[in-house]
Amino acid sequence: MLRSWLGKQERYLLWRPLDSGPEAGEECHLCASTVHRWLDKAGVKAAESVEGQLAGIVQTVAAGTDGLWAKLRGGGRRVVLLLHDSLTGVIFPPLVAKGEESAKSWQQLFARAQQAGLDLTQLRGVTSDGAKGIIAYLKQGLYWVQHQRCVWHLWRSLKGPMAQAVKEASAELEGAAAKRKGTQIRKELAKLVHNVIDAADYAQAEQALELLCDHPFGAQIAQTLNVCLDRIMVYSLDYYQGVQPVTPEWCWRDFRLRLSHGRNHGSEQRLERAALLWAVYRNFTPAQERHERKRHYRHPGLSPLAVAGFPHAHISYLDALEV
Fold first, then answer.
1. Does domain 62-150+246-320 have CATH number 1.10.3720.10?
2. Which of 47, 90, 142, 155 has the most beta carbons within 10 angstroms of its beta carbon?
3. What pTM was estimated for this model as a whole?
């Protein structure tokens, strides 16, 4: 589309059929690979700016982590690891790793965030999914930090036990009767699980867990929740205010909307440069002011850096990178 408008060629002549085409030598030869190269050069600048990038701007006490898998040329796969300040929404420089089950990968991510300006000693809580790597790293390297279990990922992990409970409840029934019984049991269990996960405090969560355990088909689900109940309720404690009960999963939506949909990068190095550039872009980009039907913005009209107290009204992310 950009090439058509710049050169008044191709589809431009369909949009404006009465206009004449471009004269000799005025055709535009811009192509997608050219824009990819421009962005990759900006990504090199973003990689060079990691050290001290957010020093003195963000004092993080609560953070969220998540990972996004991407395919590389030749069939390889890598994961983009993300560290997000839960209070301001500022994203620290991401890291591309071979997997998220290794504590070393997460140690490298937090080391990069520390290089960019994160004070690890001020960190109180970290929200993550059930990946073993981040849990192991928090126990070894950040033993004073509490781990908040992401309730969104927790609901996903309960699909299996919930389906098994419904199957047991309707085992002796057939047809419509089995379907009605299954729907009834699913609604009952979902309400009991909601009472546990969305409890206002730990005591209320324990009471709700007892009710779930007393349900004829809720024992297995109650056992699953009991194992991680301490990690589910971290965000409800006063000392850990700011810790979010969900990971920054929504950030990947913006990553996918970037050029190449955020994933089509041939090599690991180009993927990491794209992620670093995207993080700078998102920190400088204001959230839209209007609310969507299923999405509400915590700080409409403000960028994460503006929420953190860094004014940049006339500075774009490309200005910051001197591109």
1. no
2. 90
3. 0.87
